[in-house]
Fold each of these.
Amino acid sequence: MRGKWLLVARRLHLYLSVFFAPLLLVFIISGWAQTMDFDHSTPLLHNLSQIHTKQFYPLASDAGKIGPKVDRARFEQITRPMRWLVATMCVALLISIILGLVMAFTMVRQRMQVCIALFLGIVAPVGFLVLAHFY
C-alpha cells in the first residue's frame, strides 16, 4: 500500500506542478517586480502587476472600460474566472508542497538533513521579517 500511495502522490505532484508552473512564473515575476519597485518601469511589468493584484490583464482597448470609475460589480464579474483559477492554484500549490514534503521525508535516508532544511526554510524568513523592525 505504501508504494502505491507514493506513486499516486508523485504523479499528482507532477501534474499539479506542471499545470500551474506557467501561472506561478507569472506571479513570481510580477511579485518580484512589485517588490523591487519595477512594476511601473515598463508597460509589460505594469500589466503583469495587474494580473498579480487584480487578476486582470489590461489591454489598450480596455483603457476606458477598466479604471477608477468602473462599475465594481462588472469588474468583479469579469475577474471571477481568474480569481477562481488563482484560488485553485493556491490549493494545488499547498497540496503539491505537502506532497513534496511527504516524499522528502519518506524517500530520503538522511531525514535529519531534510529536517534541518525545513527548519531553516521556516526560521530564515521569520528572522528577516523580525530584523526588519530593528532598522
Note: The first helix runs from residue 2 to 35.
Amino acid sequence: MTHDNPSPSDDDLRVAVLACFAADKRTASAHLRVGVSNGIVHLAGVVTSPDTWIAAAELAESIPGVRGVVNRIEAPGAPSPARTIHLDLPTSESNKQPGKDRNG
C-alpha cells in the first residue's frame, strides 16, 4: 500500500521548525534547541519573555506533520521545564466507542 502524503521525517520536521523560528521576529534571535522524536517536537533553551515562550510552541505546532510539542523552554512566568508533560495523542483505544468493551 502506498501513501500519497507520507509523514515527514523527524529530521524534516526539525529543519522546518528551525526555519520557522528563523523567519519569525519573535523567535529569530532566541537561542532555542529543537529535537524531534516520532513527530513530537521538544523545545529547550532560555528566553526573556513569556510571549517568546508561547510563540515558539505555537510556531512549532503550526508545522504540518507535528504530532505534539513539549515546551521545556525557560522563561519568566512560564511553567518549570522540569514539570511532567502529558500529551493527548490518539491511540487505537481512543477509536473505540464509549461504553463498549472488547467483548461486546
Note: The first strand starts at residue 31 and ends at 37.
Amino acid sequence: MNEFERDDAAQWEAAEEASEMMLEGDYHDALVRLRDVIKSDPRNPYAYFYTGTALFEIGQFGAAAGAYRAAIKISPRYTGARVGLSHCLRIEDEPRAAAAEARKALELSPGDGDALFALGLAQAALGDKVGARRSLEAFLHTGPEFEASAEARAILARMQEPDSDNDNDSDLDDIN
C-alpha cells in the first residue's frame, strides 16, 4: 500500500463511524462526529461528503452544497460529492448548475447510475424532456435500487402524459 492509499484509508476510517450513524438515521450526532473529524483533518474529503449528506437529509440543502463543494475542492474526482451537489443545486432551483455538476460526474465516471439519475432529474427540472428521458432510461439500465427506480419510472410516465397546460412543464414541477 502506497502513502496515498494509506492516507485515503485513514481518512475513510475517520469518517466511517459517522457514516454508520447516518445509516441508523442519527444525522445530528453524525454531524457532531464529522465536525470533530474535520477539526482534526481539514483535508478529509469523506468528512465533508458525509457532512453534506447529513445536512441534505435534514433539509439544509444550501449548507449541504457547501460541504459537497469542500469535498470536491479537496478531491476534484469525487463523483459522489458532485452527484450530491447536483441534487442540492436542483432543489435550490439551480437546474443548469445541477446539470453541469451531473455531467462532470459522468465525465469522471462514465455510465455511473447516480450521476445519470442526477442528470435526468436536472434535465427534467429544466424542461428538457428528451434529455431527461435519455438519462433516466440509461439510469434504469444500471440496475438501480427499487426506490430510485420507481421514482425514475414515475417521472418517465409523467413525461409520457399529454401536457394539459399546452407545453407548460408543470407536470415536472415536483421534481425539485
Note: The radius of gyration is 17 Å.
Amino acid sequence: MIEAKKPTKARAPRASALKSSPPAPAYASKYAVGDHISHAMFGDGTVTAIDANKLTIDFPESVTKQIIDGYVKHRHL
C-alpha cells in the first residue's frame, strides 16, 4: 500500500532574511559638467551631463555621445 505524502506548510522567511542591506554608496564620477575630455575614437569633447558613470559628451560637428567615464581622459588645455 502506497501512502500519500502530506502537504507541507510553506514556511515564512526568517527574520534575518527580511532585513535589507544598507544601500550601496552612490557612484561619483571624477568628471564634472564642463570638463574637457579626450576619447580614442571620437576625439576631444566637453561633458554636458552626468548620470552615475555615464557621461554625455558633445564632440565637434554636433555629435553627442553617452560614454562610460572609464573610456575617456581629462584633456589639459
Note: The chain has a mean pLDDT of 85.
